[in-house]
Amino acid sequence: MSDDRLVIAGEEFGSRLIMGTGGAPSLQVLAEALTASGTELTTVAMRRVDPAARGSVLDVLRDCGVRVLPNTAGCFTAGEAVLTARLAREALGTPWVKLEVIADERTLLPDPVELLDAAERLVADGFVVLPYTNDDPVLARRLEQAGCAAVMPLGSPIGSGLGIRNPHNIELIVESAGVPVVLDAGIGTASDAALAMELGCDAVLLATAVTRAQRPATMATAMRHAVESGRLARLAGRIPRRHLAQASSPGRALPVGRASARPGSGPL
Amino acid sequence: MKVIVNGEPREVPEGASVADVVGAVSPAASGVAAALNDEVVRRSAWAATPLRDADRVEVLTAVQGG
Description:
The complex is a heterodimer of chains A (268) and B (66). Chain A is 37% helix and 15% strand. By secondary structure, chain A is α/β, with parallel strands linked by helices.
């Protein structure tokens, strides 16, 4: 499966785990976690320069050989998000942007109206737009129609660790999407990431589950394996769910007298 | 004259440019971007973009997030 690569906007990635950098207790811990995760694409936020800041997350990403994906975290309107994306493009020299336009601080859920507006404006301005969106198949379709390079539905609210609350909607998004689907937000542990891939997502984006774990590098390793395992399971094609058992040992050639007149062997 | 740099009032001499205030708040020259009154000013235009009284300048860089 070494040729099974993630392709977004014509760019290929060997890893299907996209990382965020928020929440790590130090740049050293972040570097160890990113290395363990095997990620090739990692988000950063754009904030006012702090003259007293020591070290830069950009240095960490460069040292780890990871491509930078700026986000528009903290933006509440399309206008704010468009300006932030343009500043990120100028500062970092990339037209790629993880587009976040949130509705309120309590849930950090995307504002669908502002999100679609911002996506349309950024696509028109030449950006490669990766929108963080609700687990809404209709909105995902509208974002794709607007020209987004991927759609990134949430599993549950950012940082909640509640996993994938509506797997059926994620499946519906996957079924109809013509661009990569990245499960973004809500991952709590490795099984959540594996489930996202089993549902057919093309990649997983997570930060908090690793950066705030008790042992971030160990959790990053777990996430790498989970994403790879979930992807393999999806490609392998799981067995259908059945109401009743299906024997995995042969039912023929049993010793005399065992196969008949057994309690429970008739129709239910 | 007085301008607002990253939300803080700052006294700058007449004729100061975007490049002057970016240099004053950011130790690093790379990885930063500037906006003047909500419009991005390209790095190549910083030195040639003069400030006027009450202008708002934002100087941003990448931090941990997302």
